[in-house]
Amino acid sequence: MNHLAHLLTAGSSETVRLGVLMGDHIRGKQILKEYPDQLAMGIQLHRVVDSYTDQHPELTAARNLFDAPFRRYAGIMLDVYWDHLLSRDWETYCQQPLAEFAGAAMDMLNRHFEMLPAGLQRFTRYARVTGVLGRYGETDMLEQVFAGISQRIRHDNPIADALPQLQARAEPLATAFAGFFPQLMGFARQWRKEFRQAE
Question: What angle do CA 156, 80, 119 make, to 5 degrees?
């Protein structure tokens, strides 16, 4: 999952939302003890959402739609594309308008900027300039995101050319997302409930 989807799985708690965005940048279990409970909950939620996603049959089938050399990078490509589909059908999954949701997330990142891991600080600077959280639904934004990811990978890769591959498979990918994402949201809600009960 990518930034927008992770934020939505976090529920209404700003602290948990901040944690889910930090999840890609925090390693190990021991370090979680250094964070307040709700922040640690968000980091852990990020990890279980990624694990659930990676093992889901719809996602396995979606990755198998791609041929070499794109299949190797299909997980990365799909993470971004799910945010595209989520943006496109936002009203199905969230009552708050996307612009407001994205604006609140940016306000949160800006207010907590000094405590963010370095990688999330870099993303925050990028998001300030591009408005990416509210623009995953735009084709030109997707092209920019894929180009940036491609440049950050140290070896040669085809990710900069991912969008035509995804567009060529738009119908089965949209079907996979529509089947998978409500299940993910239900899983995240149940996990948050059980986590709080266990505290």
Answer: 70
> How large is the average pLDDT for residues 43-64?
94
Indicate the average pLDDT of the chain.
94
Smallest Cα–Cα separation from 80: which of 6, 184, 20, 189?
6
What is the pLDDT averaged over residues 192-196?
89
Query: Can you give the pTM of this predicted structure?
Result: 0.93
* H helix runs in the chain, sequence order: 3-9, 14-22, 37-55, 57-63, 74-88, 90-93, 98-111, 118-130, 139-152, 162-168, 170-198
Per the structure, the complete domain to which residue 153 belongs is given by: 3-194
Indicate whether 90 belongs to any domain.
yes
SS3 assignment, position 56: coil
Looking at residue 2, what DSSP letter applies? -
DSSP-derived letter for residue 31 is G
Contact call for residues 106 and 133 (beta carbons, < 8 A): yes
Answer positive or negative: Cα dihedral of 54, 56, 62, 65. positive
Nearest to 123 by CA among 80, 174, 181: 80
Residue 74 placed within a domain: yes
**Average pLDDT value for residue range 116-120:** 95
Residue 199 maps to a domain: no
* Token pair 């940048």 in the structure block, residue: 25
How many domains does the chain fold into?
1
Q: Scanning the structure block, which residue is given the tokens 């041929």?
A: 67
| Residue 198 confidence class, pLDDT cut points 50, 70, 90 | low
